[in-house]
Each structure stands twice: as structure tokens, then as C-alpha cells.
Amino acid sequence: MDPYEFPMSHNEIQFNLKRAQYCYENENYTKAFELSNVALKIIAEEQGEVVRDDLGWALRLRAGCYLNRNELENAINDADRAIRINPNNSFIWTVRGETYFRKKDYDKAIEDLSIAIELDPYYEYARIVRADSYDCKKDYDKAIEDFTIAIKNDPENAYALNSRGLDFMNQGKYELALVDLNQSLEIEPNNAWAIAQCGIVHKRMGWYEEAINDFRKALEIDKDLEWVRVSLAECQRMENSNQIIEDGLGDGLGDCDEFDSRVETFGE
Length: 268
What we know:
It is built from 14 helices and no strands. By secondary structure, the chain is mainly α. The longest helix is centred in the first third of the chain and has 18 residues.
């Protein structure tokens, strides 16, 4: 069909979707959500293949907006519909995968994100969220594989370096952990989390003086990191008594609740 033969309603749909796409890419999710709904309202009045692709586009955008609004069930509902229309779009598989990640359904998250990566091997955001999902399952080897590919593609990816360093630490590979954490700090020198994680590594190595310095520096940057304050007090007791206490109390790593809060901003 000649584009000039499209009905005015189709042109209006396209106009709103292009504006919604622009707003989404510039992180104005409120406006993107509004414009997606305008397009969907017009689409509901149309029929046929002319608007089928537009429907998939609108649903993909709105699903992403729902995700960023943390309306997870709505995000999944729209993603399901969009995937039925076009199962070859890596973005929507990533949106649904990240939604499952936030719901702590890590197996489904990994399944969807793997499809996204198969469709687009260079979609690094999907790979990062899959690595985070592996981390929450304590599958550190697979997480390290994904973070390593991400770092190879972008050596300045401080988040991937920081996260891989945390994985090495959880495997007891402390020297490798410090290499990654220090490299991430060269990129983001004021990252209190990375500095505090250096403190945890030093604490586990029995280097309490270094750990104390790390924790103090992290608290200078972010005084609200209570788990760092706890770890600092514990290291000070260890240093003062010259005793090595082998436990995880005060490591502050907790469960994935703390971890999730660090990855929520991806794609936002």
C-alpha cells in the first residue's frame, strides 16, 4: 500500500508511537506511557494487518513503561501480547525477562533473556540482567561468563567489573576480585558500593586495617550504608583484639533485595 493511501488514523498512530519511542529512549516514561495509550486507543478502532505492527510496537513500549513504573503484572500482560504479535523482537523478551527478574522468578528471567541474546548477541543490557539473574541463583560461573563478555565489549562498564569482582569474591578468588573492583573504581572513583566491597574482600583476607580504611571511605561518600557501618565496627573489634572471626555477619551482602535495588535503574 502506498503510504499516502494510509487512512488518517494510521498516520496519527504512527505520529504518537514515534513520539512515544522518543520519550521512552529519553527516559520520559510518563509521557511515553501516555502516548502509547493514545495510540492503542486509536488502534482499537481499526482492524486488519495495517495496524498489527503498530499494535505490537505500542504494546512493547507500554510494557517497558509498566516495568519502569514497577507495575509488573501489567508489564507481563502487555509483553505476552507483544510477543505473540512479533516473537523476533529482542527488546520485548528483555522487558519480560527483567520483569520476571524483579518478581524474583530467576529461571523464567534467564529463559527470556537468553532468547533476547540469541536474537541479538550484542544486546548487552539483556546479558547484564541475565548475569544478575544467575547471581541471585548463586550460579557465579555463568554470571562471570556473561559479565566477562560484557566487559570485553565495553571495558569501561564499571557495573560489570564491580559485579564480576563480587562474584570472584563469593568464589573466594580474592585477588581477582580486587583487580576488578579497583578497575571499576578507576572508572567510578566515588562508587561507595565498590569501595565497601573492597573492604569486604580485605576483611575476608584478614587485612583488617585495609578493610577499615575502605569502610571509612565508603561511609564518607554515603553515610546511609548501615551494613558498612556494621562491618566497620566488626573489623575494628577484630583489629583491636587481633582475632580472626570466620563468619559472614556484617558482610552486608544479604539476599537479593539489596542486590535488586542496584539493577533496577537499567534501561531507565
